[in-house]
Amino acid sequence: MSGYSLDAETARDRLSSEFGRAKETMAVVWQDTGAKFGLVILASFVFIGLFGPYIAPYHPIEDTLRRQGAMMRLTAPSGKALLGTTSFGKDVLSQFLAGARPTLIIGLFGGIGTGILGFLVGLTSGYFGGRIDEFLMRLTDLTFALPLLPMALLILSFVSPNVWLITAVLVIFLWKMPARVIRSEVMTVKERTFVKSARARGAGHLRTMFLHVAPNVLGIGFLYTAYAVGWSIVAGASLAFLGFGDPTTTSWGRMLQQVFRSGAIRVAWWWVLPPAFGIAAVTTSVFLVGRAFEEIVNPELQTEEQ
Amino acid sequence: MSLLEVDDVKITYRTPDKDVHAVNNVSFSIEEGDNYGLVGESGSGKSTLAKSVLGLLDDNGEIRSGSITFNGRELTNLSEREWRDVRWEEIAYIPQSAMDSLDPVMTVGEQIREAIHTHKDVTDAAANERVEEVFDIVGLDPGRTEDYPHEFSGGMRQRVTIAMALVLDPDLIIADEPTTGLDVIVQDKIVQKLMEIQEEIDSSLLLITHEVGVVAETCDEVSVLYGGKVMEQGKTFDVFNDPHNPYTMGLKNAFPEVDEFDENAISIPGSLPDLVEEPTGCVFRNRCPFATEECESAHPPLVGDEDQASACYYNDRADELQERAADPETWGIDVPEDDEGSDVGEVIVETDGLEKWFEQSQSIVADLLGGEPNYVKAVNGVDLDIREGEILGIAGESGCGKSTLAEVVSALQSQTGGDILFEGRPVDDLLDEDTKQFRSKVQFIFQDPFDSLNPRQRVRAAVSEPLKVQGVEPEEIERRVRQTVSDVGLNPPEKYLDKHPDQLSGGERQRVAIAQALVLDPRLLICDEPASMLDVSLKANILNILREMADERDIGIAYISHDLASLSQIADRLAVMYLGRVVETGPTEEVVENPKHPYAASLLEASPRADPSIDRQRVLLPGEPPNPVDLPGGCNFAPRCPKATDKCRQEDPARSEFADGDHEAACFYPVEDIESELLARYAREREQADRESAANIAEHEPATET
């Protein structure tokens, strides 16, 4: 039945108008100094994530730096190793550059996955209400009740972790936040007359849900996706720090774990600071951009704008 | 010296792009003990003026020039601290929506006491006494001061806000649309109360409203505002009896009167000017049918004497203009040929004993014990039918079940009993067979045009959506969308198709909503108060479109409203509902001129009149509709009916108890003379109640002293 499907023309129309809105939104976000700062950091982070391994002077794990035949253990920054070396003589700068990629993957995909899953659950739950809502919301209660780190550790101790698996685990634990918020938002929008009106005009549930309700809560969805990126990065780094990261790749969290295990955490500042600042800078930027974005999404400010 | 003098006031609002000139050189004055009315449509600057008198202008608003003096004291340069003394103690305010203006977590008594304590140094006991006193003045039970706002009905809450305004014996009360959103009967009682109180405590009243009728009936003097300018000013009687200004004429003619049948309602074409620049010409010239070049030059000065002054260059031709203004064609409205009666066709929809009961939630324990749940009988055994080309008006107070009825008939909610037959077949069968097909034949228009369009959809997408759902070809869609958009009066369609709803005015939005409903060529159109949120001048326009559609497209229309005046203009037949039942039905003219059911008669009498020469007796129907749970046996209206006998309380009258052709009323003792049988009795009953409560207080008072 076509009443339950989305026709191509409507979809295209929607996409172009959404694209136009996205451009306007970015223009507004760009007005905010904090957000501008955040966007620049995020852009450089994405750049390092994509090309870091190629611009790194050494291989982060295989190359052991030596000077006069002796392994350079825990040396302070010097001409040969710009950011010093680890206790095994590895170049910290190379590890930092290579370590951005897993962080980017976890952050980006974990965040987007969380956003999408949470949006869909919230939309379905809020739109249909009743038993479906009851079931989905008890499910979110369950994920709220389970502590993230212990549960993630439990899962990861049975399987050998890799970046994608960790991303998946994070999504499973983080979707509840956007789901809750989107649900309450959908419940408000659902009560508005135009939704009832769409039903009276003969639109099916899918059409009403995605063409009438969803666009009106999309802003909040984006906002929470941005926040989820920050949460995923922090949670991914925490897991790596606890030794449950992917053992075959270098990541910022894993760098912190190694410096902690080596016992040099109070001495080798050049080894601690780069990953620590990296994580802090990226998450802060995400929130800065998110905050500027929130000003647009906030319904009160929005009505003034229109 | 006048109590309040507003002299040449200019108010602007700063917005990011431009300044909005909301009020431009307005002057008026209120004498002590007078009722003054400010009438105008939304955007005319009347609320802005009221706020400036209270010193409560929004942060971006500013009084640019002019002065406001109150009791000889200049108000425009008061500091916030000085304002606090003036507000409430000298100038009190009755806000528009009583629903929102009371704090839900404080008892009403506490809220009123708070106002007293802020301004006066009195003991709690004394404050309490005063609260009980004002409660009694506004006709509320003084024993209920410790109740919370949600325990009061809408009308009673409005009384609480009035009590709150009275409590400090202010010299001036500003009432901003005090009855908007209330039912006519409640409105009548509130207005009556306001007038009585005013006599009693001798304060002045500034009444702000868009209802010409309310002003015409209550105020001594009036200013008609438009676009931030005074269009006409003077004694209410003179202004509305013999308007000199074309805008006043339009406004008065657009205001529907209950007993004007089948007359094409007048609407003022166009919309308010955007006031980003100070007006250079007459602010009304763009919509005025009599505008000439002279009107472009400057806004005309107010010319006339104290009794009546009008801002128009053609005041001397007022008589001629009045005559022309009474003709809809002057306002650019096409009057369709009169071929009434002939085109009413077959029955489209018929309901038979239709019921919609909502189960009230009860505690789990009661559920387990097998307790029978209570039902809210929103719709309780309704038999109605709607024919082709006919408009059936469904009238009733809020809470009488008319909106539920509408949603059930259009299958947006399922019924709990009875049958709905659509073209002779049960709706349930049709829905099972093909929901889409059914939806294309029955369409719905909602009350709130500001909320019934998806803010993310352009007009084109909104109007074409129903067709897309039905799977119509794209070229066909484009053609029909254009056709329909132009049919509902949005011309040329190109101008509107690519607009977003927030770029449209309220009237335009409602027309888009009507286009959405009509684009499918439905057989039945159900309208739930489609014009109640629009200005008078636009209301008539929507009514005319619907009338035209019924005649031209042969569709059946159910028009639901609590506004009997607009119903009597548009509907061929009327059905009056009370507590989920139809108590009277028949041809509109019959029902309006000769109502038989006491409730229908009261409702009809309560409509305000714009003509100040009519002296109407107010309807003081006691009580409020009971909660439709656990209704007593017998006639539902019996507890409030002055004519009720034991028979009424035991037996439920059938709908056809009184029958005269198509005119039926569910009453054992049909009304013969409204005046003597109902209105006089209501008034007597109330006087008696007043005397009793006065006696109670007299008895009470010494007791509290000792």
Question: Could you characterize the architecture of this molecule?
Answer:
Chain B: Its main location: membrane. Chain B: The complex is composed of two ATP-binding proteins (NikD and NikE), two transmembrane proteins (NikB and NikC) and a solute-binding protein (NikA). Chain B: Keywords: ATP-binding, Cell membrane, Ion transport, Membrane, Nucleotide-binding, Translocase, Transport. The complex is a heterodimer of chains A (306) and B (706). Chain A has 306 residues and is mainly α. Chain A has a single domain (31-51, 82-305), classed as MetI-like fold (Orthogonal Bundle). Chain A contains 12 helices and 2 strands, in the order ααββαααααααααα. A two-stranded antiparallel sheet of chain A has the order 1-2. Chain A starts with 7 loop residues before the first helix and ends with a helix. By secondary structure, chain B is α/β, with parallel strands linked by helices. Among the domains of chain B are: 4-90 and 170-330, Rossmann fold, CATH 3.40.50; 452-522, no CATH class. In chain B, helix 4 (108-119) crosses helix 5 (124-137) and helix 10 (246-254) runs parallel beside helix 12. The radius of gyration of chain B is 27 Å and the shape is globular. Classes of the chains: A mainly alpha (306), B alpha/beta (706). Chain A binds chain B through residues 1-3, 7, 9-10, 13, 17, 192-194, 196-204, 207, 211-212, 215-216, 306, and chain B through 410, 412, 435-436, 439-440, 443-444, 446-448, 451-458, 461, 465-466, 468-471, 474, 502, 513, 516-517, 520.
Give the C-alpha Rg of chain A: 23 Å
**Helicity level of chain A, as a percent range?**
over 70%
Number of domains of chain A: 1
Architecture of the domain at 4-90 and 170-330 in chain B, according to CATH? Answer: 3-Layer(aba) Sandwich
Q: Which shape of chain B, going by the Cα principal axes?
A: globular
Low-confidence stretches of chain B: 701-706
The value of Rg of chain B in angstroms is: 27 Å
Separation, N- and C-terminal Cα atoms of chain A = 36 Å
Mean pLDDT of chain A: 79
CATH superfamily descriptor of the domain at 4-90 and 170-330 in chain B: P-loop containing nucleotide triphosphate hydrolases
Number of helices of chain A: 12
- What is the top-level CATH class of the domain at 4-90 and 170-330 in chain B? Alpha Beta
Largest sheet of chain B: 8 strands, mixed
| Shape category of chain A | elongated
CATH topology of the domain at 4-90 and 170-330 in chain B, what is it called? Rossmann fold
Q: What is the number of beta strands of chain A?
A: 2
**Beta-strand fraction estimate of chain A:** under 5%
CATH topology category name of chain A: MetI-like fold
- Using CB atoms under 8 Å apart, which protein chain pair has the greatest interface? A-B, 26 and 32 residues
InterPro entries (chain A): BP-dependent_transpt_permease, MetI-like, MetI-like_sf, OppC_N
Protein name (chain A): ABC transporter permease
Family (chain A): Belongs to the binding-protein-dependent transport system permease family.
Membrane topology (chain A): Multi-pass membrane protein
